[in-house]
Amino acid sequence: MALLGALTLEDYKKTGKPELGLSSLDPNIADTLQWVQKANYMGASVSDAVVFSIGGKIYRGMGNAGNSRKKDIWEYDPATDKWTEKSDFPGTTNAGKGYFVIGNKACVVNGQSQRIANSNDYYQYMWGYDPATDVWTQKEQYPESGLNLSFSIKDKGYAGYHSNDFHEYNPLTDTWSRRTSAPSGSGRSVTAAADDRYGYALFGGTFYRYDPETDKWSQRADGPEGTIAFVWNGELYVENNNSFSKYDSDDNSWSTAIIVPRDIPLEWGVVCNGKLYVGGGLEMWEYTF
C-alpha cells in the first residue's frame, strides 16, 4: 500500500482530517496520489547499479551486493509490469562505472585505475548493449583513469572524472576525443543528466551546464545535492530530500516540483514512456507527471 509518511493514502482518502496534518487542498497530497508501486526488481538488491531506458523499457543491473559484484541485467516492461532477465554483462564489473544511451543502444563505461587481481590489466573498459538483439559488444575503452560523470547529448556520449578529464565519444568512429573539463574541484559527488542541447552536472550542489557546440561549461545557480537527476519535457529535475526540484533556465532558479512520500526509496531514477520510475533495494515506484 502506498504511504504518505506514517499515514496510508487509503486512510487519508477516508479522513482527510486537518488534525492529521494534511489538508484536502494541500497540493502535496494530490502529488503523492500520482505514485504507484510496481513489480519488485527480480535481481539482487544492489548499490551502484546501471539503470537506463530504451524503446519504452527499463534496464537495470550490475552493481554491488555486499562483497559480490553482479553482472546480471534485467528488462522491465511497463505494459506487463514484469521483469525479464537478459544477457549478463560480459566484462569485469567494479564500482565507479558510468553509462549513457545513444539512440537505441546503451554504453557502460569505466575508467577505474584499480588493477584486476592476478592480472596486468585494469578495469578500464566500455561495452555497448543492444536491447533489440540482447548482445553486448566491446568498444574503445575510456582513455583515462577514474570516472564519475557521464551523459549523452544527441548522438555523442560524454564521460569524465571531477575536473581532471572530460571526453566525448563518437559511436560512428568508436573513438574518444578530449573536451574541456568541468571547472569544479575534485573530491565531490557528481549528479549528471542531459537533454538535446546541454549536459548538466552538480558537484555537491555546485551546478554547471555544458554546451557541446562551444565546448564550454558555465556555472548556474546552486542546486540540490541529490543523487538522482533526469530531464523531462525539456526541464532538469534533481532529487532533493523526498522531493524533486526543477531548474528554470529562464530565470536561473530552482523550485520544488515533485513530492515523494517518505516511504519511497530514492536510490535511482529513470524516465520511461513519459513516466518517472524510482526505487531502492528491490522496490520500484511509478510517478505520472
CATH class of the largest domain: Mainly Beta
Alpha-beta content class: mainly beta
Largest sheet: 4 strands, antiparallel
- State Rg: 20 Å
Structure description:
The protein has 2 helices and 28 strands. Strands 3-28-27-26 form a 4-stranded antiparallel sheet, with no helix packed on it. The chain is mainly beta and about 290 residues long. It folds into 2 domains: about 1-35, no CATH class; about 35-289, 6 Propeller (Neuraminidase), CATH 2.120.10. It has helices spanning about 10-15, 25-30; strands at about 5, 5-10, 35, 50-55, 55-60, 65, 70, 75, 80-85, 95-100, 105-110, 125-130, 135-140, 150-155, 155-160, 165-170, 175-180, 190-195, 200-205, 205-210, 215-220, 230, 235-240, 245-250, 255-260, 270, 275-280, 285-289.
What order do the helices and strands come in, and which of them pair?
Elements lengths: L2 E2 L2 E2 H7 L11 H6 L2 E3 L12 E5 L2 E5 L2 E2 L2 E2 L3 E5 L4 E4 L11 E6 L2 E6 L14 E6 L4 E4 L10 E5 L2 E6 L3 E6 L4 E4 L11 E5 L4 E5 L2 E6 L4 E4 L9 E4 L2 E5 L3 E6 L4 E7 L8 E5 L2 E6 L2 E6 L1
Antiparallel strand pairs: 1-2, 3-28, 4-5, 5-8, 6-7, 8-9, 10-11, 11-12, 12-13, 14-15, 15-16, 16-17, 18-19, 19-20, 20-21, 22-23, 23-24, 24-25, 26-27, 27-28
Q: Short summary of the structure?
A:
The chain contains two helices and 28 strands. The chain is mainly beta and 289 residues long.
Entry keywords:
single chain, 289 residues, mainly beta, Neuraminidase, 2 domains, four-stranded antiparallel β-sheet, 2 helices, globular, disordered N terminus
